[in-house]
Amino acid sequence: MADRDYRLIVEGELSDELEPAFHGMTLTRGKGNTALTGTVRDQAELQGLFRRVSDLGLTLLEAKAIDGRPEELSGDGPANADPTGSRPSAARSYKKGAGNGYRN
After folding, report:
1. CA–CA separation, 9 vs 16, rounded Å?
2. Is 0.90 surpassed by the pTM of this model?
3. Distance CA 39, CA 1 (A)
4. CA–CA separation, 38 vs 24, rounded Å?
5. Which of the listed residues 7, 25, 88, 99 has the most CB atoms within 10 Å of its CB?
6. pLDDT, tens digit, for every residue of 29-85?
7. Can you tell me whether residue 84 is helix, strand or coil?
8. How far is it, in rounded angstroms, from Cα 45 to Cα 47?
9. For residue 97, is pLDDT > 60?
10. CA distances from 62 to 76, 79 (A)
């Protein structure tokens, strides 16, 4: 996996004290959520971010590649905008839903 930019949205507006836990990611707060945005080198680093979210007891609402690549799977359209209200790019995304916890 080549470097890709990702946006993870977690429930709640995280404090600055948690920023070091997500080294290399930019935290953007708004509308009761926090977007963690940054470049991820590989699957291991991405899984590490997911594990950190879980270890901190945070609720992951969405994880999306935002580097402008076309969607790998056609779904029901683009995901909701990030907490700052910017327009989402074409990407593969996983959103919290019913059933298994995530849908794409």
Report:
1. 16
2. no
3. 12
4. 6
5. 7
6. 999 999 999 999 999 999 999 999 999 999 999 999 996 654 443 333 344 444 544
7. coil
8. 5
9. no
10. 15, 9
Rounded Cα distance between 65 and 23, Å, is 18
Measured distance CA(94)–CA(96) in Å, rounded: 7
SS3 94: strand
Structure tokens at 48: 């590490």
Which residues does 78 contact at the CB level (< 8 Å), separation at least 6? 88, 89, 90, 91, 93
CA gap 48, 22 in Å, rounded: 10
- In the chain, the domains with their CATH numbers are 4-95 (3.30.70)
C-alpha to C-alpha distance for 44 and 53, rounded to whole angstroms: 14
Rg, the chain, Cα only: 13
